Amino acid sequence: MISVEGVSVHAGGVEILSDVSLDVEEGEFLALVGPNGAGKTTLLKAMGGLVAPSSGHVTVDDRDLGVLSAREVGRLVARVPQETAFGFDFTVREIVAMGRTPYRARLRRNPDPDGDERVQAALDRTETAALAERSVEGLSGGEKQRVLLARALAQDAPVLLLDEPTANLDINHQVRTLDLVAGLTDETVVAAIHDLELAARYCDRVALLAGGRLRAMGAPEEVLTAERLESVFDTPVAVGENPATGTASVTALSRPPLSER
Question: What is the pTM of this model?
């Protein structure tokens, strides 16, 4: 579904991504993990057509994003940004309806006959239908995150990209959000996830980035090893098994004082 081939990205003379190649299968849930500044958000932007690679290319469903219009990209890829500020006092339904923009012409009449049905389906799938007529300004952080997800689902794109979907959420909303995303069987999902244990619990595969390079990619238990994580995050790490989920449990450890090393 998604193919990233030799993608490098430069900004202000600095290399943000360096020769990254990976494939994401249809229906897969892939986590992008790594330290701050690893290039996760930039890779998501490249996969969503928001950043043009300095070299290499990204294809979605065998279509090169670099030669497509914004409207064509919007019908292939939907994004859920980390920032939940909306700027204007819209209702939830109005926000979700914005996901239909790729199907509406700006300068001529285009009724988007499926629009209302798609918007309602997105509200139902994200359990935000009861909030539809409320102002987004009065919602909690977790509710706003689900509204953004509903807007992306209303876009009816086969690929969904999420940038830190659990950032600033309490543990209840973290689990509810990822339960919802993991249950999206019709979409291919790529998410930058800060919490390694949540990535191991919910995702089919994990791509580990550091310094703008892809360091490892595979099943969570293959990628999230103590040796590899210590090297990438520059801190001692203990990796075990969560007794409740059976997935990886990752604990960062303190370094001993310099006098004891």
Answer: 0.92
